[in-house]
Write a structure and sequence with these properties.
The complex is a heterodimer of chains A (159) and B (764). Helices cover 82% and strands 0% of the residues of chain A. Chain A is an all-alpha fold and 159 residues long. The two termini of chain A are 26 Å apart. Chain B is mostly helical. Helices cover 54% and strands 2% of the residues of chain B.
């Protein structure tokens, strides 16, 4: 559900044309578009670095976590999940809406971690270190754009 | 966590149409990768043209009235079509809030808006008269669309104002969807909303609609400079609209049932068309190597639910080279993946066999198990011949060949791709989630097993698992106190036990009435106030009682139906007519029809008008049919004109509650719905029941429904109880049990159940 889909769905439900306010909102979305796509491409090309730095920082803070226990399976799945989170964030930034995060990220992941008995506190902590690393890499403006998506994800994963 | 007992009904949000960003993201998400260069370029191009698109949409919206007017005037003659057009921006109620076209055009609000529209259209036409030359030019020189020879303009007077209103509304809608699609940058929103409309719109106006749409296109283009990019865009979207409108309704997608006891399903094809951006992966020999690689990865994602090429690539390298090479077939590859050591380790060994079968169904057929028989068949295979045989059976099945053939990678046939079964809805939605492998407990089997339960569980005064019972306005209520009592599958063979609500039978009433009529106390005396009858009671009492029966309470003055009341008072109509008039009133329709779904609506209306719950699926199916084909008013007619109504209430009696369901009865117990079946709370009832149940366990006993309107005093109770015992009556739910009203014909079969119910309602 992007900004546009949202506006159309609302207008359709009320049987009217898109209002001025909605058109302005979509217009803003279009204006910000190139910046968003630039951020997406930065995330895409640096994902390995982000995951590497992020996981190192996370393991420094929480050396007791299962993925740091030396078991290669835990470690690789931890890294895989981190890359996956970054990818979801990049989708969300591109669409300009938290919906990609909401549907597969927060709800799906939360349920999965709960049933795998992975402590959610640690997952949230891990995403937080990813956020720190990513924001360091971006300019101030870009960081302001990406930050909220990370916050949303973290809030959703908090136990 | 979903409720395991009824399979749950998780909410799914389908994506009915796409915008450019959602389509791009969906595509990337399906392939499990980041946006690639070309996708980013697509997005960028969309964003760049975005502001221009918004302007176009705005211009179209501003001139909406003129455009619609042009279309309307082209096809209608003999009046002003715009008089029938309602402002689309006027707040229109949601479904269920009481707005519907057939009544509204007489209200003062719509009259004023009609007047406004007339003014507006006069305004427009004078504007075009100001410069007759340009109007002329517009007609002859700017490419006004040509009209097919067989087109004939429609006369407004012949067409009728209701249809006229609808036509104009539809033209407005078409334009609205065009503006949406322009903003979205994707035509799917038009396709979804217009494809297949041809079958809905009457045949005689199909051609006219096309003509009107052409005219609207022409009119819309006149607001943009000729040959501009904007004009081209508007032209294209209208072309798509007209093309989609003219497409014949595509035939439904059929899905055959897995056994002959289970019917197949059909899904309108437009559904599938609109689901859009899901790629199907096909392995062909002449594909370049890099694309073959992508297809193989897709197969990994389907079978192993992740890309295993990095971790376990070596194990599978031989298979991969086979499928890539000469004559490699995807079906064979999938089959061998399924038989590989890796698949065994991931999806067979950690699970119980039942769950492994469910997961294998997802991986190889792209759906969940459909029914118990199917599961049993697979389970037998696995236990006799091992897991490999199951894979062979799945991949070798006709269904696999039909859907995927030898080349296509299996895909999930979820919502939007195919019609979904109701039977396994919850588990199937869960099964398609990425978290499915972490569930170790079989889900489908437990759900199907729950459906085998007969409808009234164990005994008629229990908690019951009646899925249709109405509880404080909710059907299908969630059972939280005793989760064992799962709602049962209300299948075509299900019969509900209906228990007499303790009301007296008609002939008893007659006798009582005679004796009481002389005392003139009938209305006030609660104990004998069984039915209100216009021959015995004052008209006021009858009216009050009717409102109470139909609405469940005394109604507000504004909800009363004065005309019908006057007719009743004047003796122009009978009580039955009065009931019918009330049931057809605006207030009743609002309360029990608009805003409720069909099952619930018919259930409630049935109870209100006939005084008993519906009895079986046969009955409800009949009402579905009436509602679907003829609507609400026909339903009321069918109920009030039915033989049952006439026999029971006649012309002069107000309907009253005659029967309740076991669950409904239990809910009236002051100790809560489950109290009545607990020995501690209700020793006498349970004791009676158990005794009778044991006594009556003779297998050859097939008896009619125990529901019976026998009235009994406490002294009669004993005798009747005896009768019941000796005649060995018990609630047998056989298909040949008769409807309860037929039981009225056999007063000698007064049944203990009715007695107990009378007793318990008296004590409660």
């Amino acid at each position: 559900m992007s900004v546009i889909t949202q506006a159309i769905a609302t207008a359709d439900r009320e049987v009217r044309y898109l209002s001025k306010g909605e058109l302005d909102m979509i217009g803003r979305f279009f204006n910000d578009g190139p910046q968003r796509l630039r951020i997406v491409s930065i995330l895409n090309s640096n994902v390995d670095e982000i995951v590497e730095k992020g996981s190192r920082r996370f393991w420094q803070q929480h050396p007791e976590t299962p993925s740091h226990s030396g078991n290669p399976r835990f470690q690789s799945s931890c890294l895989r999940d981190q890359a996956w989170f970054i990818r979801l964030i990049s989708y969300a930034v591109a669409v300009g809406d938290v919906d990609p995060l909401e549907s597969s990220g927060v709800r799906g992941a939360r349920q999965m971690y709960l049933s795998l008995e992975v402590p959610l506190r640690l997952v949230a902590q891990c995403v937080r270190s990813l956020k720190d690393v990513t924001l360091d890499m971006l300019s101030v403006e870009d960081a302001a754009e990406v930050g909220p998506y990370f916050d949303y994800l973290i809030a959703g994963l908090m136990p | 966590m979903t409720d395991r007992t009824n399979g749950g009904s998780p909410v799914v949000n389908s994506q009915p149409y796409h915008t450019v960003p959602t389509a791009v993201i969906e595509g990337a998400h399906q392939r499990d990768r980041y946006l690639n260069h070309s996708e980013t370029q697509t997005l960028l191009a969309f964003l760049k043209t975005g502001l221009r698109r918004l302007e176009i949409a705005q211009i179209l919206a501003e001139h909406a009235n003129e455009i619609v007017a042009a279309g309307g005037r082209r096809i209608f003659v003999g009046g002003n079509p715009m008089a029938y057009f309602e402002e689309p921006s006027a707040p229109v109620g949601m479904p269920g809030s009481g707005y519907f076209v057939a009544e509204d055009y007489l209200s003062p609000k719509s009259k004023t808006s009609q007047a406004n529209n007339t003014l507006l259209s006069v305004d427009v036409s004078t504007k075009s008269l100001v410069n007759p030359l340009s109007w002329f030019k517009g007609l002859f020189f700017s490419g006004k669309p040509s009209v097919p020879g067989r087109f004939q303009a429609i006369n407004i007077a012949d067409y009728g104002s209701v249809r006229m209103k609808r036509s104009m509304r539809d033209l407005g809608w078409f334009l609205r969807y065009v503006t949406y699609a322009i903003v979205a940058g994707d035509t799917s929103i038009i396709s979804v909303n217009t494809r297949g409309l041809q079958g809905v719109i009457p045949q005689d106006v199909t051609l006219a609609t096309t003509v009107a749409l052409r005219e609207m296109q022409w009119k819309a283009l006149s607001f943009f400079p000729a040959e501009s990019a904007a004009a081209a865009l508007v032209q294209r979207y209208f072309d798509v609209l007209i093309a989609d409108y003219n497409v014949e309704k595509p035939s439904d997608r059929l899905r055959s049932g897995v056994s002959k006891h289970h019917q197949g399903l059909s899904l309108p094809q437009s559904y599938e068309d609109s689901s859009g951006a899901r790629p199907k992966w096909v392995m062909k020999e002449d594909l370049p190597d890099i694309e073959k690689e992508a297809v193989i990865k897709a197969a990994y994602r389907q079978i192993f639910e992740r890309d295993v090429s990095e971790l376990y690539g070596d194990e599978l390298s031989k298979l991969v080279s086979q499928v890539k090479g000469e004559g490699g077939s995807m079906a064979l590859f999938v089959q061998q993946l399924g038989k590989s050591r890796l698949y065994r380790r991931l999806y067979y060994e950690p699970y119980s066999i039942s769950r492994a079968i469910e997961l294998a169904c997802r991986h190889f057929l792209g759906r969940g198990l459909s029914c118990m028989e199917e599961f049993q068949q697979y389970f037998e295979l696995v236990s006799e011949k091992g897991f490999a045989a199951l894979i062979d059976a799945l991949v070798g099945s006709k269904e696999y060949a039909d859907y995927f053939g030898v080349e296509t990678v299996p895909y999930l046939r979820g919502l939007g791709v195919e019609a979904q079964e109701c039977r396994n809805w919850g588990p199937q939605v869960e099964l398609f989630k990425p978290s499915a492998p972490v569930r170790k407990v079989p889900q489908f089997v437990t759900t199907f097993a729950g459906y085998q339960q007969p409808l009234p569980n164990q005994h008629p005064y229990g908690v019951g698992n009646d899925p249709l019972e109405i509880q404080f306005g909710a059907i299908f209520s969630q059972e939280t106190k005793a989760p064992d009592a799962q709602p049962a599958h209300f299948s075509k063979d299900s019969r509900r036990i209906l228990i007499s609500s303790g009301q007296k039978k008609a002939h008893f009433v007659q006798r009582d009435r005679l004796s009481l009529a002389s005392q003139h106390k009938a209305v006030r005396d609660k104990a004998v106030q069984i039915s209100i009858d216009s021959t015995q009671h004052s008209v006021e009492a009858v009216i009050l009682a009717t409102y109470r029966q139909l609405f469940g309470c005394d109604v507000l003055a504004s909800q009363r139906h004065r005309v019908a009341e006057t007719q009743l008072k004047g003796g122009l109509s009978t009580v039955r007519d009065f009931v019918k008039a009330l049931a057809k009133s605006r207030a009743f329709r609002r309360a029990y029809w608009e805003g409720l779904y069909l099952t619930k609506s018919t259930e409630i209306i049935h109870r209100r008008l006939l005084g008993r719950p519906t009895y079986s699926r046969e009955e409800t199916n009949k009402y579905y049919d009436i509602c679907g084909r003829q609507g609400f008013y026909a339903l009321v007619d069918a109920l009030v004109d039915s033989d049952e109504y006439r026999e029971t209430f006649g012309e002069n009696t107000v309907p009253y509650e005659r029967y309740v369901t076991p669950r409904g009865l239990a809910m009236r117990s002051p100790k809560g719905p489950s109290a009545i079946s607990r020995l501690r709370d209700n020793p006498s009832t349970v004791g009676d029941y158990m005794m009778r149940y044991q006594a009556a366990s003779a297998p050859d006993e097939k008896q009619a429904m125990p529901a019976q309107n026998g009235f009994s005093t406490p002294t009669q109770h004993q005798d009747q109880h005896q009768t019941a015992d000796t005649s060995e009556q018990r609630p047998v739910l056989s298909p040949d049990s008769t409807l309860p009203e037929n039981a009225d014909d056999r007063p000698e079969e007064a049944d203990a159940l009715a007695v107990v119910s009378a007793e318990s309602s008296a004590s409660g």
